[in-house]
């Protein structure tokens, strides 16, 4: 339940007057710990008996006082007044650029922020002082960045520079760090760590779509088909020797589970020897730690297409193109079950009845049968 400032102030007032947190908790349905926290945060200030401040009002006033103190510091630092010519005021403000935020600088001398930004952008390229100052702070920022093992961001580097007597803003430090290409290693530490641990994604196959025997090279891919208002995903594993679909699965999700279950089905159907090459694209399901561990467990060599090179997995891509033209785009499926029956029927036709030009017009099943009969 949300409470207004007035309700919170009322509860805290009663607590201050002696009511126990337990009784107030029961009365208003507020957790006791929340009341204690409110008592700490929503302390009332009574400068006189006529006015009561909430903590939010106090914080607003505190920020206003802080801003006014900065304006006073700017007015003390410049060699002109608010009534000086605009050109003179811009020159003085430029000397303080980076030490205070632009809002404070412009408000101190009553200068439009747009006018000030135009002045800075127009003059900074040819301004030797401007470039010299930025170069000095590039060196200082690099020193602090290296001193603290490259783990600090702009805010903390700015704090250290201020402690060492340099009045700079966080935006100034941020801009220079961006120009220098400096980024806190903490922001990308996990990604960098995973990259170091991640095995290299090699393209072992290199578009050599030929195998000397069954279960030497498998290729795999996933395709999507929209059925009504939902999508169904089909994963296949083909043997490159015979172009036979050795396993397939249909799922409502394109997940690692779909890939692993299809591969496990292929293992059950074929029982390949160690050293099998498994080729696919770089989809997140194929590169997942879970799937890679499964391949490693069965001594399978994983191969990946190069990024943005669909032809590196041309056999699987070609199968799905044929599958869609000869089956999916020619039928009007009434349900998911009807779709699965269509997939079952087509893959059985593809394996056992459909001749392949690359197989000298034999079917995948005929090629494997001939290979078995040729064994000594």
Please name the defining characteristics of this protein:
376 residues, alpha/beta, Nucleotidyltransferase, domain 5, 3 domains, 5-stranded mixed beta sheet, 53% helix, elongated
The helical percent reads: 40-55%
The parts where pLDDT drops under 50 for at least 5 residues are: 44-49
Can you tell me the CATH class of the largest domain?
Answer: Alpha Beta
Strand percentage: 5-15%
Number of helices: 17
Q: What is the CATH architecture descriptor of the largest domain?
A: 2-Layer Sandwich
Mean pLDDT: 84
Within CATH, the superfamily of the largest domain carries the name Ribonuclease H-like superfamily/Ribonuclease H
SSE series? HHHEEHHHHHHHHEEEHEHHEHHH
Please sum up the structure shown.
With 376 residues, the chain is an alpha/beta fold.
